[in-house]
Amino acid sequence: MPNYVSKSRRKVTVSTMPGVWMTASDVTANRSNQMRRRGAGEPMEVITSRLTWDSITVTRMYDPATDDALWAELNRGNAYNGTTITLVDLDTDGVPVGTPDSYAGCAVESFTRGGSDANADDEVVELSVTFSVPRKG
Question: What are the φ/ψ torsions at residue 10 (nearest 5 degrees)?
């Protein structure tokens, strides 16, 4: 019987930003292939390009005690170059299983901290950081 992993059992770590992250966006890999023929009447061939990855956004609940310093650094322009983002699958006991997904050499692309709503007592302010991803592994 397959042992599928729930999204709620993927632990997110950000090497340059310690703490607990609750979400990471889906990671999409892309390449721009071209269809070419060597000459008239020749069959089409696929020419592959390098693989690239879309940006990854990680999010956590904002805790002023731990996140004010991070927020200040982000606003000073620290891009946290060289960050590694890792997603680890956990079994039902919280034990790592399988091979982690790691994205190395990342840098901050954008960031946001939740706004304000006087009528939103049940909503928690979140910190989201989006990273450019140059490579997997």
Answer: -115, 110
From residue 134, alpha-carbon distances to 50, 85, 87, 103 in Å are 11, 12, 16, 8
Cβ pair 74, 68 in contact under 8 A: no
Report the amino acid identity of residue 67.
D
Query: Which of 69, 77, 86, 67 has the alpha carbon at shortest distance from 24?
Result: 86
Q: What is the C-alpha separation between 44 and 36, in angstroms, rounded?
A: 5
Q: Read off the pLDDT of residues 57-91 as tens digits, 9 standing for 90 and up.
A: 999 999 999 999 999 999 999 999 999 999 999 98
The amino acid at 79:
A
Cα 130 from Cα 57, distance rounded (Å): 4
